[in-house]
Amino acid sequence: MKKILALALCAILCIGLLAGCGEGSTEETAPATEPSGELETIVVGATAVPHAEILEAVREELAALGYELEVEIFNDYILPNTTLADGSLDANYFQHGPYLENFNAERGTDLVNAAAIHYEPMGVYPGAKSALDELAEGDTIAIPNDGSNETRALLILQELGYITLTEGVNASSVATVLDIVDNPLNLEILEMNAENIPHSLPDVAFGIINGNYALQAGLTGNDALASEDAESDAAQTYANIVACRAGEEDSAKIQALVQALTSETCREFIESSYDGAVVPIF
Description:
Blueprint: H1 2-29, E1 40-47, H2 48-57, H3 59-64, E2 67-74, H4 79-85, E3 91-96, H5 97-107, E4 111-119, E5 123-126, E6 140-144, H6 147-159, E7 164-165, E8 180-182, E9 188-192, H7 197-200, E10 206-209, H8 211-216, E11 226-227, H9 233-237, E12 240-245, H10 252-261, H11 264-273, E13 279-280
Parallel strand pairs: 1-2, 1-3, 6-9, 6-10
Antiparallel strand pairs: 3-12, 4-12, 4-13, 5-10, 5-11, 7-8
């Protein structure tokens, strides 16, 4: 009987040991649950300079927030908005608020301002003439032909004393050459696509150029003969913005983009890169 009990006890102990070994083996071989670490893609349309450069400067900021940045570069002011409207982009970064409002009105799009990021003072750049006091009767000055930027250019010419505009025209207006009521030098104000003005400088006395196109042409704020005051009302009115489709401005994706573009990293990059041609406004 003692032998039988001893054998039974040994059997029980062996079974327990085997069961214990089985549990340990299961714990060691079970796969660990790890977070995937995959980033969600955010596609942003931008003009090459400075917008795409600024976006690249905050790529790591966006990655830390869970987003892989994809920048699609455009060379005009139309396609970035139509491509955003059709859903091919998540956002764009190239324009100011008045341009967006005018675009929506003309094209029937429903895009909104998600945040103001920076301001690019528009400047008068030398063409065939190298100084403002060389301007003569009948000279030609090239200006952008889109509503809001044309208004800005005309206001600069008025501030310089070259023309007088209809009373009441201001930074929030949409003005054209038809609003000129006095032009004592009989200047020819040549309206043309903003992106073409830098290449046309040899053919005109002066060109009034948007900051991004000036930078693309190798010009800086120091090359301008005159420019908008970065502390003026125009700086707020014409701040460059992040735009998205209406209803998406509070989405996690757009808020992450805004957070990255209003970070200290972004501010430092802008201030150290553009010699006053681009001014952070956040």
